[in-house]
Write a structure and sequence with these properties.
Layout lengths: L3 E5 L4 H9 L3 E6 L4 H7 L3 E3 L5 H11 L4 E4 L7 H7 L4 E3 L3 H7 L2 H10 L7 E2 L7 H5 L5 E5 L9 E2 L10 E5 L5 E9 L3 E11 L11 E6 L10 H19 L2 E11 L2 E8 L6 H8 L3 H9 L16 E8 L4 E2 L12 E2 L7 E2 L4 E9 L2 H18 L9
Parallel strand pairs: 1-2, 1-4, 2-3, 4-5
Antiparallel strand pairs: 6-9, 7-8, 7-9, 10-11, 10-13, 11-12, 12-15, 13-14, 15-19, 16-18, 17-19
Helix pairs in contact: 1-2, 3-4, 4-5
Length: about 400
């Protein structure tokens, strides 16, 4: 008999689809109400625009009397909201105490250092400036929000700028950006996939440090130098963080690759954006593995992380101009598109329009397919929104 699960996330489509594929009946709350999400949940849906974690909890309490509840992006920095979400329900994901501890970037850096895993320097306040340092400035820093995701709000720190309580400094490292998706049972981590991240790519409407997609790494089409060594180091980091914080279920780490070392820059203690690529590549019931891992049972994945026949890619396409979408409903059911907005949906510059997918023998061919699909999406944002009278 199918079980009911409530899903809460700023964008819930991927997590809701994964639960549905695993045989669950799904209720959801998110900020977008895309057509393919509504296909999954039907009337068991609440849209919140703008997104608010506390309001999301209240919406599910009023609309979804389910025994199980899962969450995604938009709640990992809201342990109080997750605590309320899990009231009288089984929580599928890291509990509030874990989110609170794992949300401290200095604690993450300390846990990695204690395990002997290399990472960037992290500071809660601006470094003191001496005359010697003016002549030899030392490391460059990024100013990062403590409660953010997907690279939003990250800027290069200007020397002398104050670092407030809502931000911190992280050493800026040069190198390709990557991620590792892993399962955890509170004691150990199991790697599922290594990916190259797409960051700040203007072809997808992104800029700066904003995440806009992933390409899954394979043994035959490596995306990094010293890829096997990099995977080993990223797995060590995931294992160290799992032990330090008691992580459970699907989680992810973001890193900068340098000379075969995965220098961790972010911990995502929740279902990640790259997770659905794993399901596409392996046809894994990943949501069920997530459920089991949250209950302390770490089931083995079907194949090693790099054992994939093709390169699988995903990109989020952000609007290059303001307008309304036209013809997008025709994408519904097309495997290359997800997060499909209804025809006539208004979007502003920088808003996510939809997600595109590709698969190919090589990383370049996969990326080229994503670029071609992105151009279609950009063309679908047509008529400008009329200015208010």
């Amino acid at each position: 008999m199918a079980q009911d699960v409530a899903v809460a996330a700023a964008s819930a489509r991927a997590l809701a689809q994964a639960a549905r594929r695993a045989g669950y009946r799904v209720a959801a709350v998110d900020a977008y109400g895309d057509l393919d999400l509504r296909q999954v949940v039907g009337d068991a849906y609440v849209r919140l625009r703008p997104w608010d974690a506390t309001a999301a909890v209240a919406a599910l309490a009023n609309r979804a009397a389910t025994r199980l509840v899962a969450y995604g992006t938009g709640l990992e920095h809201e342990p109080a909201a997750v605590r309320a979400l899990a009231k009288e329900r089984e929580l599928l994901g890291n509990p509030p105490s874990v989110l609170a501890a794992a949300g401290d970037p200095l604690a993450i850096a300390a846990a990695l250092a204690e395990a002997g895993v290399p990472g960037p320097m992290v500071r809660a306040s601006a470094p003191a400036v001496s005359r010697a340092k003016v002549k030899a400035p030392g490391p460059a820093w990024l100013l990062k929000p403590r409660a953010s995701g997907g690279g939003r709000g990250i800027t290069d720190w200007a020397r002398g700028t104050r670092v407030g309580r809502t931000h911190y400094l992280q050493e800026r490292l040069d190198g390709p950006s990557g991620s590792l998706v892993f399962l955890a049972d509170g004691r150990r981590a199991m790697p599922l996939a290594l990916s190259r991240q797409l960051v700040g790519d203007a072809a997808f409407g992104a800029a700066g440090y904003r995440w806009c997609g992933n390409l899954l790494a394979t043994a035959d089409a490596p995306l990094f130098d010293e890829q096997e060594r990099l995977l080993h180091g990223a797995t060590r980091a995931a294992d160290a963080l799992t032990k330090a914080f008691g992580l459970v279920g699907v989680n992810g780490i973001d890193f900068i690759a340098q000379d075969g070392a995965a220098r961790v820059v972010e911990l995502n203690p929740r279902w990640t954006a790259a997770a659905e690529l794993i399901e596409r590549a392996r046809e894994l019931p990943l949501f069920e593995l997530h459920v089991r891992a949250c209950r302390g049972v770490l089931l083995p994945a079907s194949r090693p992380p790099l054992d994939l026949p093709l390169t699988y890619g995903k990109a989020v396409v952000f609007a290059l101009r303001s307008g309304v979408t036209a013809g997008t409903a025709a994408w519904l059911g097309d495997r290359r598109f997800a997060d499909v907005p209804a025809n006539g949906t208004p979007v502003a510059v920088g808003d996510p329009v939809c997600t595109v997918f590709a698969e190919a023998d090589t990383a370049k061919a996969c990326h080229d397919q994503l670029l071609a699909l992105a151009r279609l999406v950009h063309h679908a944002v047509g008529r400008p929104i009329p200015a208010p009278a």
